[in-house]
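Quick start: what a row looks like.
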Amino acid sequence: MKSSGLMIAAVVLAVLSGILYWSGHRKPTDPTVSAASDEAPKILTLNAGDISKVEIDKQGALNVVVGKDATGKWQITGPQVLSADQQSVSSLVSALSPLTSDRLVEDQAGDLQQYGLKSPALEVKATTKDGQSHRLLVGDATPSGNAAFAMLAGDPRVFTIANYTKSSVDKSPNDLRDTRLFTLDFDKLNRVELTSKNSTIEFTRNRDAWQILKPQPLRTDSSQVDELVRQLRDAKMDLAASSDERKIASAFASATAVATAKLTDSSTVQNLAVRKDKDGYLAQSGAVNGIYKISNQLGEELAKSLDDFRNKKLFDFGFDEPEKLELRDAGKSYLFTKGGQDWWLNGKKMDSAAVQALIDKLRELNSSKFPNSGFGASSIDLTVTSDAGKRVEHVLISKAGDQYLAKRENQPTLYQLDANSVTNVEKAAADVNAVEAAQPAQTPAPKK
């Protein structure tokens, strides 16, 4: 029995000794449990404005170098010279100034191998404008996987940094590259020209409003042109799908031409030629070298026709409230005028809700097509006055088979209207009735 007890005690002692040995030589299982410090000290305390160069050396990848040019803008200088996305590089620099740790693991690290810091997978060197360099070493992930071990070259302390901090400084050239296909100033954009095989459409901006100038001055659907400009502003290279330069150049050469977009700001003119093959849209920019795959949304936007950008609304008063409506139709004539909150016809107060229904039907008059001819004798004459009398819109409508054609005064464009929409206007006008005057109260006869 004694021998058995001694044997059990010896086994327990051996196990405890092994646990103590292992705990003294393993990596910390969790950076939140540290005997060195309960604080999260800064690894680097640089000012962002003082950093003039950043070099990223990652195992298995080409070194990335970004630096400021003579104008103070960031530029990628390695592994090749490329324009840099200023915001992306600024985010990288911000992550380094200052660089805060999650935890301090060791004050005086002896064995860097256990942290992956003897031959670190990632090194980031920040150089300040006074010529001083600071080299951040990033090693293995912590056992919990939500952080990585890190240290500053020449500093014996070992820290942990959050994964998002590591991601903020672990950047490739594509992460930092300016991927815009147009680099001009869109805030000063004043002209857009779309040239396809069959036509050229030119838009000009007058203050904040876009207008169609070519092939002739036409009313413009501003929302459609705004969307075109937004797509051009957001036009980016799809670098992942464009990595094989020889293959994509061959595809572009054999693809079908869609359109060329020519943009002009106050001082710059830039072009983008777009083609389509079986796999999507490809673009060659005059602002940057190379051929790139682009989004289908941009390609489809540039493939639109002139009619897609034209204003299909027959009237321009929109959501402004008119103050006068005049309608002549087959011998019937209506002249509604607004006084205060009320509508009047021939000195009689009209049902305002019914007049509002007529206004709504006028707003809904939209063109389905823009024919070049076919307008005959007018059968309906409409005039809408709005904007305190500053806007007077005169429209004539004629019957054309099962449809109606309309034209605005002093404009050559014809608008094809659905027959139902015209019938709805006629019916709404006929439904406007006078408001019956309230009858005076009857005075009861005196009792006898």
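That is the whole record. The CA atoms of residues 204 and 211 lie 5 Å apart. The longest helix spans residues 2-25.
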